Amino acid sequence: MADGQETSTGFNPLMLLVWAWVGLPFAYGVYELIQKVAQLFGG
Amino acid sequence: MIPPAALSVHLAIGQAYSWSVFKKPLESAFGLTGTASALPFQLGIVMLGLSAAFGGTLVERNGPRWAMFVSMICFSSGFLISALGVALGQYWLVVLGYGFVGGIGLGIGYISPVSTLMKWFPDRPGMATGIAIMGFGGGALIASPWSTEMLSAFGSDLGGISKTFLVHGLVYAVFMSMGVFLIRVPREGWRPPGWDPAKTAVRSLVTTANVSARNAIRTPQFWCLWVVLCFNVTAGIGILEKAAPMIGDFFANTSTPVAAGAAAGFVALLSLANMAGRIVWSSTSDVIGRKNMYRVYLGVGALFYLVIALAGDSSTLLFIVCAMGILSFYGGGFATVPAYLKDLFGTYQVGAIHGRLLTAWSTAGVLGPLIVNAVADSQEAAGRSGSSLYTTSLYIMIVLLAVGFLANELIRPVNPVYHEPPVEEEAGQQGPLAMRGEA
């Protein structure tokens, strides 16, 4: 499991997929959280 | 692609904070007490601290991909062993699986991307580690509703819990594998375009030298920072651990008591503040400096506690705003500390040093709930109710934050006697000289 080494952080199409990989579950979690917060102010 | 790689690990292991979802089903299925059903989580947090402290040097030596791989195997195996344990009706296997094996995955996974992120973003180390550590806070936001829905679908009996654990183990293995594949160490000497390391080193606490993990724990700076982190976390955990009953008790004697559903909303709001604080405040620390940032966490945090203590049950909104402020500083304290360590000790073995510092978290995890619960119980036994159940513990938190503030003030640049000597670099090895060239 040796680490590879990169020389740049340039943008590539894979970037969108990678951010969606973590971003979509996170958005789901935030959505569920907002639903609960609404209970605090909505009664 | 390094931040999402780090996030894939932290969003997964952050599931640990949502263990409470499994407590009731496990208690019903196995006939357990509340204390027994908390065992897997408690052992997991203990193993997090121990594996981060003792595994930090291995993580530095073998690199982030190895660490993320180990974390993925341990964390997923923990769920799979637990699934087997539930299927066989053997609760000890759940404790061993989720708590012991999974806990190792938590500790190694937590520190795995820290030093790599700071090497990729030497100009904004606070923001870089804030993104990852925000993921740890966000992991429970995903896992809590997801696990609840899965238990509803499979059922809350032994078979249903077993299937739920099995799916968790498999899904988290796939989810974390993205991080394992994508994590990369920058080539030696890499620096962001247009960034001048000399400008960063102008601040008095930011070093261009390096200190080994072995030497770091011999410095007063390490132990001052240990006290700072421990008391900042104690202050936050004191509210976090008892948030729902606390807001209920606080306003029980008023004309506007807080119902159980609203208390759940308060808990969710604190989670949001905790998570947002990790990225907002750690990014701010890149601008105003780490020492100033901790002055805010500890000083303003103490003021928030004072406002809660003085205002009592007079205003629900004021209580919520102050509690959110405290929790945002709690999260910010976690996220800013790796960058503070990097400023003081360099990037050479910052992951290993960070691992050792996390023992402060384990200590605070015991201290915070102990203070709040013990004081509330004794006040209740004395016949008190409402906000007066918590007044004494609020003042104790203010004292702890003041001690933390003083410890932060005592932090000075590390004595050069602890610095690694400038040695010629061996081919293929990362050592102090290479790190110094980057910083």
Automatic annotation (TrEMBL), chain A:
Domain of life per record: Bacteria
Chain segments annotated as transmembrane: 14-34
Keyword annotations of the record: Membrane, Transmembrane, Transmembrane helix
Keyword Transmembrane on entry: yes
Keyword Transmembrane applies: yes
Protein's recorded name: Uncharacterized protein
Organism whose genome encodes this protein: Streptosporangium subroseum
UniProtKB/TrEMBL annotation, chain B:
Record-annotated membrane-spanning stretches: 42-59, 66-85, 91-114, 126-145, 165-183, 222-240, 260-281, 293-311, 317-341, 353-376, 388-407
Record membrane topology: Multi-pass membrane protein
UniProtKB keywords: Membrane, Transmembrane, Transmembrane helix
Subcellular location field: Cell membrane
Record-annotated Major facilitator superfamily (MFS) profile domain positions: 1-411
Gene Ontology CC terms, in alphabetical order: plasma membrane
Molecular functions (GO terms): transmembrane transporter activity
InterPro entries, per the entry: MFS, MFS_dom, MFS_trans_sf, Proton-linked_MCT
PANTHER family xref list: MAJOR FACILITATOR SUPERFAMILY (MFS) PROFILE DOMAIN-CONTAINING PROTEIN-RELATED (PTHR11360:SF317), MONOCARBOXYLATE TRANSPORTER (PTHR11360)
Protein name from the UniProt record: Nitrate/nitrite transporter NarK
Source organism of this protein record: Streptosporangium subroseum
